[in-house]
């Protein structure tokens, strides 16, 4: 497994990241612990979680359970020093903190809650799950209206106040690095400026959706990431399972995400199945597993990118891990580019 660093932090991690969002719900604890062990055996020591996990669906009574699953593994194994852990502070949600947004009055308590559930004294990367001002992520780009956001001065003042708390938490050794999620180029630049003004942590990574079917990151964010050394943690690199091919031809496997959430969070459409088939055909022509094609493509982008992969079952985990050494030829990449032009924004 190749190695890389998170932004300019010097924190070294595996070039792939283990996702955990189904642990404690679709994925039982024992199976989750086996996934961590198997990932480590393959050289993958980076895992991502969040205080609001598990999902599919998110329920008030299960919030925090995924962190508890990881914490139980840490306590039982004694291997905290062998893993790099990223977690997230939930944005404004009726299910957490009575709907209060991320603020200087929430960050310390939220992080310390995560530390308690994770049974650790520190997290390596602490991320904000989505921005308070709103976001065009999760299919909101189709009707995005920035006029609904607070003024720039209000947003920046809030960032400065939050950055002061983050600076304290870094000094106290409770988090090593800071990252964003579901944010934009403008938002990322404002956080970079806030860190410089307030002596707080620099944005090291951003976790946005990114796959062969979702390429909003490819322009402004890619340029920013290149010049500012910000690592993309690409979530849903298999496009919520579409790119595995398991949903083609009307299939809805029992226990799959589509069986739980029929519209796949707004991703499902005729165009998605057509685009997916284009990539499945490329994989077939070149003798590739489509899962390996999708993940290797994400890992090989011309800007710093770490794909976050998740597996609900042992079979899914083994299929993914068997492809960590996949390298795509120029011929494959040329066909991928052609397919992207034909199917540029399937959702």
Structure description:
- The protein is an alpha/beta fold and 347 residues long.
- 38% of the residues lie in helices and 14% in strands.
- The chain has one domain: TIM Barrel (Alpha-Beta Barrel).
- Helix 2 (65-77) crosses helix 3 (107-118), helix 4 (152-171) crosses helix 5 and helix 8 (270-285) packs antiparallel against helix 11 (330-342).
At the fold tier of CATH, the topology name is TIM Barrel
The largest beta-sheet arranges its strands as 3-4-5-6-7-8-9-10
Mean pLDDT: 96
Which second-level CATH architecture applies?
A: Alpha-Beta Barrel
Along the chain, the helix and strand elements come as EEEHEHEHEHEHEHEHHHEHH
Cα-based radius of gyration, to the nearest Å: 19 Å
Strand tally, please?
A: 10
> Helix amount, in percent?
25-40%
CATH class annotation: Alpha Beta
Determine the CATH superfamily. Answer: NADP-dependent oxidoreductase domain
Largest sheet: 8 strands, parallel, barrel
| General shape | globular
Question: How many domains in all?
Answer: 1
Low-confidence stretches: none
Task: Return the structural class.
Answer: alpha/beta
Head-to-tail CA distance between termini: 32 Å
| Helical run tally | 11
């Amino acid at each position: 497994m190749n190695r890389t660093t998170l932004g300019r932090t010097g924190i070294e991690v595996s070039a792939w990241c283990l996702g955990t969002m189904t642990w404690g719900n679709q994925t039982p604890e024992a199976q989750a612990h086996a996934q961590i062990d198997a990932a480590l055996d393959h050289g993958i020591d980076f895992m991502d979680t969040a205080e609001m996990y598990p999902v599919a669906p998110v329920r008030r009574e299960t919030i925090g359970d995924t962190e508890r699953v990881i914490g139980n593994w840490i306590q039982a194994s004694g291997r905290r020093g062998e893993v790099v852990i990223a977690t997230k502070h939930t944005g404004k949600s009726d299910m957490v903190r009575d709907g209060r947004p991320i603020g200087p009055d929430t960050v310390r308590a939220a992080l310390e809650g995560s530390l308690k559930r994770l049974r650790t004294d520190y997290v390596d990367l602490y991320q904000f799950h989505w921005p308070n001002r709103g976001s065009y992520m999760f299919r909101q780009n189709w009707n995005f209206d920035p006029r609904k956001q607070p003024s720039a001065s209000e947003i920046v003042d809030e960032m400065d106040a939050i950055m002061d708390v983050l600076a304290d938490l870094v000094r106290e050794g409770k988090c090593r690095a800071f990252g964003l999620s579901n944010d934009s180029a403008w938002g990322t630049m404002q956080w970079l400026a806030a860190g410089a003004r307030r002596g707080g942590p620099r944005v090291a990574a951003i976790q946005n959706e990114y796959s062969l079917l979702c390429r909003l990151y490819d322009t402004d964010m890619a340029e920013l990431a290149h010049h500012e050394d910000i690592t993309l943690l690409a979530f849903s690199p298999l496009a919520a399972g579409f790119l595995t091919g398991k949903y083609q031809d009307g299939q809805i496997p029992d226990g799959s995400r589509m069986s739980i959430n029929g519209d796949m969070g707004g991703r499902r459409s005729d165009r998605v199945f057509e685009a997916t088939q284009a990539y499945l055909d490329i994989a077939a022509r070149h003798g590739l597993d489509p899962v390996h094609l999708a993940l290797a493509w994400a890992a090989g982008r011309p800007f710093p990118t770490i794909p976050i992969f998740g597996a609900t079952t042992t079979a899914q985990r083994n299929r993914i891990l068997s492809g960590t050494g996949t390298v795509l030829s120029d011929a494959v990449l040329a066909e991928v580019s052609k397919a992207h032009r034909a199917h540029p924004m399937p959702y």
